């Protein structure tokens, strides 16, 4: 059995102590935004399948994917506020991303209400067009934010 002895102890003043931990990687809200965009893209795919194969299963998949995307979008909003308060490095420019993502979330919320109607007309054509519009808004937002962040890299 080994015995451990403490040779020296130092105490520091708690009032002046600062965390030395550094934030690594991407901010949390960016990861959550990616997940909600994936859910919205999945809803677009299931809407297209429902348009071709009018089985109610695909319509249910769509509404669940839209709902999951909206829940994750809410979590992304909360994480964004936490990232701002925690002084994490947020990619610039911020406003095109915030406005575009907010528009996509509002369109998805409307899409959820459209999908909650009964019958084939719940998805085709209105729900399908809203799903396409959400993806177009997300892609344009990503392209605009990327272009504004690095103007020399317009084409690729």
Q: What would you note in describing this structure?
A:
Helices cover 64% and strands 0% of the residues. The model has no long low-confidence stretch (mean pLDDT 85). It has 156 residues and is mainly α. 23% of the residues are buried. The chain starts with 27 loop residues before the first helix and ends in a 7-residue tail after the last helix. Helix 3 packs antiparallel against helix 4 (126-149).
Q: In summary, what is this structure?
A:
The chain has about 160 residues and is mainly α. It has helices spanning about 30-50, 55-85, 95-115, 125-150. The mean pLDDT is about 85.
Largest sheet: none
Strand content: under 5%
Based on CA atoms alone, the radius of gyration comes out at 23 Å
Overall structural class, as computed from helix and strand content, comes to: mainly alpha
Poorly predicted regions are none
Distance between the termini: 64 Å
Overall pLDDT: 85
- Strands, total number: 0
Shape: elongated
- Total helical segments: 4
Summarize the amount of helix as a percent range.
Answer: 55-70%
Oligomeric state of the chains in view: single chain
Order of helices and strands: HHHH
């Amino acid at each position: 059995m080994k015995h451990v002895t403490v040779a020296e102890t130092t105490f520091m003043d708690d009032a002046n102590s600062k965390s030395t931990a550094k934030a690594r990687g991407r901010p949390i809200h960016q990861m959550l935004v990616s997940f909600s965009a994936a859910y919205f893209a999945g809803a677009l795919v299931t809407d297209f399948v429902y348009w071709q194969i009018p089985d109610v299963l695909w319509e249910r998949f769509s509404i669940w994917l839209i709902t999951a995307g909206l829940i994750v979008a809410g979590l992304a909003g909360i994480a964004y506020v936490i990232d701002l308060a925690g002084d994490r490095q947020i990619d610039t420019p911020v406003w095109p991303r915030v406005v575009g993502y907010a528009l996509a979330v509002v369109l998805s919320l409307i899409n959820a209400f459209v999908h909650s109607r009964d019958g084939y007309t719940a998805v085709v054509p209105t729900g399908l067009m809203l799903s396409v519009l959400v993806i177009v808004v997300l892609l344009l937002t990503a392209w605009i934010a990327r272009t504004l962040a690095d103007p020399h890299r317009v084409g690729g």
